[in-house]
Amino acid sequence: TLHVARNFTGSNITYAYPANVKLSDTITMAAKKRTRRATASLSMAALLIGLCCFSSSSSPLAPMVDAADPKRFLGTNNHKFWSLRGGSLLDTATKINFDDNLGSLSLYGVGVRKKGPIKVYSVGMYSDESAKSSIASLPKNKSALTTLRKSLKSSKTTSFLLKMNFKVGAEKMADAIAESVDPRTSDKGAVESLKKLIMDGVSAKGAATPGTILQFDCLSDGSVKVSVDGKAVGSASGLSEPFCDVFLDDDGVSPAFRESVVENCCGVASSSSSATPTATHSSSSHNPIHIIGSLFYHKLKLPKLPYKYNALQPIISEKTLRAHHLKHNAKYIETVNQIVSEGGASLKHLSMEQIVKSKALKESNPVLYNNAAQCWNHLFFFRCMTGSGGGGEPKGLLAKIIRRDFGSFDNLRKEMESSSIKAFGSGWTWLGYDKKEKRLVVSTMTGAGNPLIEGIIPILVIDMWEHAYYLDYQDNRKEYINGFFDRLVNWKYAQQNLKHAMGKGIVPETVHHVSHHGLPLVAALFSANLAKKTAVHMLFQQS
Q1: What is the C-alpha to C-alpha distance for residues 491 and 499, in angstroms, rounded to an integer?
Q2: Is the pLDDT of residue 27 over 90?
Q3: Which residue did the predictor score with more confidence, 215 or 72?
């Protein structure tokens, strides 16, 4: 994630992360200090050894990963390019998120645009459902993109969002896009017009800095409408098809984007992949907001808890937690597997995210919806608690936003407590982030209710089903809720969910694995120190 040096202070160089990646500090190195190539080789080797050790299924340090692990793609291994979140796709190369809808348009795929080692921007494509359906039954290979390009000609609007990950000057940004479009059209005047529009739009803010969003709407009349950070700049005629080809033809500027489109849009109507072999363990995630983005080609398995069964005592007893996890949660997963296996191809193409968000499916197939939502809800709930250091008041960004939206943490707690106690029957009390209103909201939803169906991103949840607390508290909901807030709530996890929802960047996966699962001593010593220093020097020498 480190990029080229861009801040100089005397004899020191500060290597800065992109603006959308928030770290506690930056790395400063003396400019003249060198590192031998032998050190680099040794450091990288140690890092690889460490990664192998905690990803290997035979290692005692390997994290136990379940079929409900949100970043594990059950049917594919395309998670190296993108992963599904709550109502969105994440470009994992840049950690930039794309909502799954842009007005009435649907997201087709995302990918990174690289220039050498630099990840310049992430691109996401949106268009109508008719073009997507034209390739839904096609095999997952590049030939499907040819069909898609033809289908897009009849679409009213196809939009490309370019979200900047690296600072680029206005002129360079305009030149780069114009140079990609130019070989695909004979209308050089239109290319110059497009170039000027980009330069004018970006110049208004000085440069295309990390976080800047360039939007290109390819319209049915052949023109391309240019907007920068939501502000319309103008239109260039006759470039709609060439602009689409920049990303979709065989020489497209982002191979990762093309693969993402194929994986996300093709093969979903095919019945040839109806088998459901046992899921394999491959990677780990710490954040259920990365919702299960998998196809149901494999059966779900009961996820392992992030703590021992007795870790939440005395607030939640071992007996209650075992029953909750091994009986109730397991039953939901068993039911989902059974329904999907009997439902044929029409259900096997659905991702968990699609099920939980679908109001139509909730009405047409409530049994599948309720059980799938309960699988998601339980995975999220168990990670909202911690056996050590939990409870109390939140800190940092989350505390600041709570004070802004509720006045104080006490007000939020009282609202969640009141909503939970007054709720009729079983359900869930959610703290979520409304992306439209840009604020936190509290809601209690009955049954298997999940705020994703209303476009609200979950931040924290309290399980108000009786099996979560009745053995310990009978009908004393208030005492259960007080114990949750006083001793159990995992505010660090909730804050990270908020950062995801607000687009504030995420903690790197490596940091998560080191802090949660540990690395072998040798790998930790080398990768945490020598590899970091070596990487900084290599970047300095390269720049």
Answers
A1: 12
A2: no
A3: 215
Query: For residue 263, which of 353, 351, 180 has the smallest C-alpha distance?
Result: 351
345-387 residue pLDDT tens: 567 667 777 888 888 888 988 999 999 999 999 999 999 999 8
- pTM comes to 0.46
- Tell me the H-state helices in 409-507: 409-422, 470-473, 477-483, 491-502
**Amino acid identity, position 482:** N
What one-character-per-residue DSSP string does 304-364 give? PPSS-TTTTTTTS-HHHHHIIIIIIIHHHHHHHHHHHHHHTHHHHT--HHHHHH-HHHHHH
- CA angle 476–480–486, rounded 5-degree value: 140
Rounded Cα distance, 155 and 106, in Å: 12
Contact 246, 258 (CB under 8 A): no
3-state secondary structure of 188: helix
d(CA 52, CA 66): 19
Phi, psi (5° rounding) for residue 97? Answer: -105, 145
- Distance (Å, whole) CA 427 – CA 536: 50
How far, in Å, CA of 170 to CA of 41, rounded?
38
Pick 184 or 274 by higher pLDDT: 184
The residues near 262 (Cβ < 8 Å, ≥ 6 apart) are 109, 140, 141, 142, 144, 145
CB burial readout 4-28, b (16+ within 10 A) else e: ebeeeeeeebebbbbebbeeeeebe
Asked if 105 and 127 touch (Cβ cutoff 8 Å), the reply is yes
Percent of the chain residues topping a pLDDT of 70: 72
- DSSP conformational letter for 235: E
DSSP state letters, 68-93: T-TT--SS--GGGTEEEETTEEEETT
One-letter amino acid at 464 equals M
Token pair belonging to 483: 């114990």
Q: Note the pLDDT tens digit of each residue in 225-283.
A: 999 999 999 999 999 999 999 999 988 899 999 998 988 888 754 333 333 333 333 33
- Coil/strand/helix, residue 423: coil
Question: Apex CA 371: angle with CA 319 and CA 323, to 5°?
Answer: 5
Cα 98 to Cα 70, 80, 392, 456, 497: the distances in Å are 17, 16, 33, 15, 16
